[in-house]
Amino acid sequence: MTVAEVLVSVRKFHGRRHWHHPMVRLGEDEHGVWLGEQVGTVYSKGEVGPVYTTEEPRVMLFPRDAWWTVLFQAAPARLDVYCDVTTPSEWPNPTEVTMVDLDLDVCRTRATGAVFVDDEDEFARHRVRYGYPPEVVVQATAAAEWLTGALQDGTEPFRSRYRTWLDTVGW
Questions:
Q1: How many whole angstroms separate alpha carbon 122 and alpha carbon 103?
Q2: How many angstroms separate the CA atoms of 35 and 61, rounded?
Q3: Pair 53, 40: CB distance under 8 Å
Q4: How far is CA 170 from CA 24, 59, 69, 79, 140, in A?
Q5: How many angstroms separate the CA atoms of 143 and 165, rounded?
Q6: H or E element: which one contains 152?
Q7: What is the reported pLDDT for 96?
Q8: Mean pLDDT of the 10-25 span
Q9: Is 161 helix (H, G, I), strand (E, B) or coil?
Q10: CA 62, CA 132: separation in Å to the nearest integer?
């Protein structure tokens, strides 16, 4: 199997570098592009450098033209699903995917399946501080609302589709 490494590069609305880390391209399906990473992947934040190393296999989905990305985490992670509300993902080249983090996160806990929206306070502050345009606010809040419903009712790929991709990460 040829392994194609991809840099996931996330910025904040004001342009500063946020999270960045390597992943491996797993494939594509009707939901979008899937990337994976094994235990031991190093995540860096901003210009600080390494912040933490993963303790579980993970896969990320980058849907086409959607205002979100999603990280699916195997145990022992407390959250099995972590959705970031973002601008639509862009692929400047086959080895990099970029997007702007819009603060809102929609998460599902592994133990109970509870779904919650995180960082609404950060979104409210940054909306004013960085002057989010009205269209960005509309898209971000609509994405968070849709994700909440999709996680609660088990819309794919949140029900089980992701497990197929997560199972491939043990290469």
A1: 6
A2: 7
A3: yes
A4: 12, 11, 22, 20, 34
A5: 23
A6: helix 134-153
A7: 96
A8: 92
A9: helix
A10: 22
Q: Is the CB of residue 102 less than 8 Å from the CB of residue 13? A: yes
pLDDT over 50 at 93, yes or no: yes
| Tokens coding 9 | 């590069």
Closest CA to 116 of 158, 153, 144: 144
> Is the pLDDT reported for residue 1 higher than 90?
no
Distance CA 19, CA 8 (A): 8
The confidence score (pLDDT) of residue 48 equals: 77
Q: How far is CA 150 from CA 62, 84, 112, 137, 140, in A?
A: 16, 14, 16, 20, 15
Q: In the 8-state DSSP scheme, what is residue 87?
A: S
Look up residue 92 and give its two tokens: 């400047």
- More confident position, 104 or 53: 104
Mean pLDDT of the chain: 93
Q: Tokens at residue 114, please?
A: 């509870």
Strand partners, 106: 83, 117
